[in-house]
Amino acid sequence: MKRWVTDLKEFRSVIISKRLDFVDLVLGANSHTLSINLISVKVGLDSEKQKELRQFLRSYIPNEKQGVIQEHEYDDYEDDVSSDDELTEEEKNREHEKVLEDKYQHIPDSVFKRKFLQNIVGNFRASKGIPRDIPCALERNATLDFNLKTKLTDQMQNSPGYKRMMQVRSQLPVFESKDYILDMIKENQVVVISGETGSGKTTQVAQYILDDFILNNRGSVCHIVCTQPRRISAVSVAQRVADERGERCGESVGYQIRLDKQLPRKQGSILFCTTGILLQWLHSDPGLSHVTHVLIDEIHERNMDTDFVMTVIREVLPQRKDLKVILMSATLNAEQFADYFYKCPIITVPGKLYPVEKYYLEDIISMTGYVKMKQRKPRPRQDASYNQFSDMIVPYVLSLRHKFGEVVIDQLLQPDSEALNLELYQELIEHICENEGPGAILVFLPGWDQISNLCRMLSSSSFFSIIGVPKQASEDRDELEFENDEEAEKREIKILTGNKDRQFLILPLHSKMPTVNQSQVFDPPPPGVRKIIISTNIAETSITINDVVYIIDSGKMKVKSYDAEKNVSVLQDQWVSKANAVQRRGRAGRVQRGKCYHMYTKARERLFDDFPTPEILRTRLEELILTIKLLELGKVATILNRIMDSPNPKTVNLSLKLLETLRALDGDENLTPLGFHLAKLPLEPHIAKMIILGAIFSCVDPILSLAACLSFKEPFFMPLGQDKEVMAKKIIISKGNKSDHLVLAEAFRLWEEVKNKKEARKFCWDNFLSMATFRDLRKLKIEFAEYLHEMGFLKSKNSKDESANTNSKNFSVLKAVICAGLYPNVAIVERVQRFTLSGKLEVVVRTPEDGNVKLHRSSINESQLSFESPYLVYHSKMKSSHIFLHDATMVSSLPLILFSHKVYYDPTGKVIRVNDDIAFHCAKDLATLVQELRQEVQKVLDTLVMEPGTVDWASNDQKTKILRAAAELITSEDTTQQKTENDVKEGAKKRK
DNA sequence: GAGCACTGC
């Protein structure tokens, strides 16, 4: 990249706009050219002037960056600005860059401004396809090479433990391909390794590479990063590999996941991390310069992270010719990934599992002799799913006539034969218990409903009857000394039995149930007791239960997708993919032979997709777009088109539009200063905005509590069949605020008050809260506070610092900040109506975009009798059987007026309008005043975002005065605070 | 009139 500048002033502006994090100053031998980061400048200055220039450069670069200035003579720096065209293009670029810079001319110079400008100019340049050459940062170190080799060869020859491990390792199927794999990696920049569970690829391949480097005296120039989609696998694989090498994590093997790391040495090592961590590194090291090999595992899962990392890495490859990439996938469709990397080679390794016998619905109906009670025949629906049944399933069933009796065929021919029928599950479980050997049974069902129903059915069946509670305790229970056994029993999972010789432990497993962390699930049951685990997809990958021998696979799972036409998220049951079915089957046969019962016909399985729909096609894209912008990858559409499966352009446009509405992007897709902040925070943009406002409005701690809950998970458990009790506790914690968000913030505050005391456990137990979740959430809060501190919005890293919490006890201000973050997610309460039959009350709510929606049962507002203000802001809206708002906070008018995206006065109706659906009666004079206040507040917020700083709530400067005035008005206007004692009681009564 | 898949920074 060359450009010619002769005048010192212009030279200065060129430099200011450049990425000064990596300054590479090249002084041409003829003393006429200077090159800064590949931009050559023909200075035509004498040596004295050049010296001046260099001094200027140094003075401009922030102190901490001085170390990276490299200044060297370049003896053959030719003028290769060849054609006039290129020059013009460059000039055009320069002009455009200047436009970008001028736009923010009014902001005073600061580190933030420079970084921000650097980013948007970089984005612009990337969209022009301007490459950067990135060298590997690892330097050869002969001493280290020698030491590594000595240690390894010594271990190989002398350590009995290592030899024993080697014996085990050499039994893995991948071992036979070791040399071939190493050769292929040497010859190719990208290789796909495909193999099923048990092949050993995840634990072995990285070690083969490292050992090969070490044995060739090149250990110091090898640093392998292996990404895993889940935290648990990153840590457990690292520990396993360290074990195999006779070490602990932190030497040649380490891991890094969010909030936890055990890093290995920088050279001659393997790091296992989550894919998200690798993405974070790309922010500061876009060429992964400290890495020599990237292994991306489980790419067949098609997570957004792995898909996106593959895209970015494919862009990086031409700039990092020495970087090796190894993609690891399940066998089906490995070609798809190889094709994506320009037809790179595929190495296939076999898997190793104990055999798992497969049964399908036809076998199961036959073996159980199950006959469904004849109901009124449902009228066959003439839809796609029915057509599929009659076209594909019926012919298959008819072909089975020679094999199965008429009764079985008749069952299978009913159009709803493959519908989820829990009676059949019960029959099958009883059949297994009566006819098969010992071993745990794992049942995969799509969701809460089916799990709780099956548990209830089994509990009330005569085959299983309750005898008592198990001895093992839950993680939370463990820490609790029980005073009241009856209370304990109510929440525990029951052991069930038919007679004294046969006992059963029935365990529901769902991320929101308290069983997830229980040792009961993982440990072998007491002798004579059979475990029956009834689970969601969580047991497919995240939770591994070793003693499972029997799998019952419904073939269904809940899938969240995004309907771009209706602009709403959808959660619905779907048939699983072939890959899911294989994975579920593989959950048996880990330690011994197993059996898998698929509750669908064999013909149905042939209709399954090979893989789940890639996440990127099922989700909104705001966060991804911000990441693309932060990574300076250029135009969003261009990059998204290069992803293996490009998202729907309509989704892209809706996401871009929302980001513009949030004022995170300008009309040209450039990040705004606010967008730049939001992109750096590991949060959805709405919540990221909320925590920045929390800092500015001095109520950071409760807002961080809320942000952690919304972005990770709520600390409330949902024990089976106790939703009413949970709701009663939530309503007490809400203190009369009609806000699920304040319930979360308050629950957190209450826990933090007692967390180091003895009563913490009792507090959690009494309120259906999880200590384990709280501990994770607290780490998240600490991380958020560190980000805010680093960005300049907090004086201290401590979110509890008094100066950042002046308004933390002011619910009105909290709700206003929540409103500001969640806007434009506003719903309007129309009325509370009574159902004539049951007498139950229902809140009728609508949103401008969707029409009527419902409040979800888990919201405390679903049971409210009246609303002082008709406006509810919400975070999550999802369509299942209806469109549900899962959480909601009632807000009064002023927060909406102050923090919505625009307001205007409508003189005909004498209302101040936020949009077509939200308006407040208001005399003109008052409206003018309110609008002025809004303008002032927005101006303060804009300034604070562009020049990040903390607000001293006690000071008397202009900015603070305006914020304080706003907070005072918000508080006095919030009449909703005054009610409530009665409402609370009535609400609780209604629940009962 | 009738319920809440799962990851991750």
From TrEMBL:
Stored Pfam families = DEAD, HA2_C, Helicase_C, OB_NTP_bind, WHD_HA2
Protein family according to the UniProt entry: Belongs to the DEAD box helicase family. DEAH subfamily.
Q: What is this protein called?
A: RNA helicase
* UniProt GO molecular function: ATP binding; DNA helicase activity; G-quadruplex DNA binding; G-quadruplex RNA binding; hydrolase activity; RNA helicase activity
Q: Which SMART domains match?
A: DEXDc, HA2, HELICc
Mark out the compositionally biased spans (Acidic residues): 73-89
Q: Where on the tree of life does the source sit, at the highest rank?
A: Eukaryota
Which stretches make up the Helicase ATP-binding domain? 182-350
Lineage, opening ranks: Eukaryota, Metazoa, Ecdysozoa, Arthropoda, Hexapoda
What CDD domains does the entry give? SF2_C_RHA (cd18791)
Q: Which UniProt keywords apply?
A: ATP-binding, Helicase, Hydrolase, Nucleotide-binding
